[in-house]
Specification:
Layout (H helix, E strand, L loop, with lengths): L1 H17 L2 E16 L17 H9 L18 E4 L2 E8 H15 L4 H4 L2 E4 L6 E7 L24 H9 L1 E17 L7
Parallel strand pairs: 1-4
Antiparallel strand pairs: 1-6, 2-3, 3-5
């Protein structure tokens, strides 16, 4: 797809300018697998199947139709999700989008130094289709200042993210290792001034 083409284009510029030499390698990296928390496969009280057909809505928007509007500014996009302080509110998203958002949330939670320890979250729920939910938790470090207008304040005594995931959505994060393709840099130089 386009991201790979863009990557290859950028790489060729870097190879020329910085004498960059790289190779691809498959490595075992630590990840979090998002799995169903209950053995019977039941979902948490906040995880619901939305009553809107987003595939049809997205197809209509792509064909030049109107973009569905939110009822209130604090509502999530009907076929998307929004991330606020210590919460994710989804109108209708697939699990693949939730794991992407959780990857960012986990990296944020570990602070700027969390970069090196940042783990991808991988979807192992086996849940297909789209879901609507509100996930709210109490971060280890409470943000300063008042929340944005219309967003409820964070409950200082609420659950941590992993507990909230389990209690509200019926999902849990399981540390695991996964084989992934990574780019390894073999050589790079300072460019000579033009």
């Amino acid at each position: 797809g386009p991201p790979r083409e863009v990557f290859l284009m950028i790489r060729s510029v870097l190879e020329e300018r910085f004498k960059l030499k790289t190779h691809m390698e498959t490595r075992e990296l630590p990840v979090y697998e998002l799995v169903l928390a209950k053995a019977d496969g039941s979902l948490g009280p906040q995880l619901k199947r939305p009553d809107i057909d987003c595939d049809a809505i997205i197809a209509a928007v792509n064909a030049g139709g109107p973009v569905p509007q939110r009822q209130r500014p604090t509502d999530p996009p009907p076929c998307g999700a929004m991330r606020g302080p210590a919460r994710i509110i989804a109108g209708s998203i697939p699990m693949s989008q939730l794991v992407n958002m959780l990857t960012f949330v986990m990296a944020d939670a570990n602070g700027p130094a969390g970069g090196a320890d940042a783990r991808l979250v991988v979807d192992k729920t086996g849940l297909n289709g789209r879901f609507a939910f509100t996930l709210a938790w109490t971060p280890e470090k409470m943000p300063e200042g008042a929340p944005p207008p219309g967003i409820p304040p964070i409950d200082p005594n609420g659950p941590a993210l992993v507990t909230a995931l389990q209690e509200q959505l019926g999902l849990k994060l399981r540390p695991a290792r996964s084989r992934m393709e990574v780019v390894v840099i073999d050589h790079v130089e300072q460019p000579t001034p033009d």
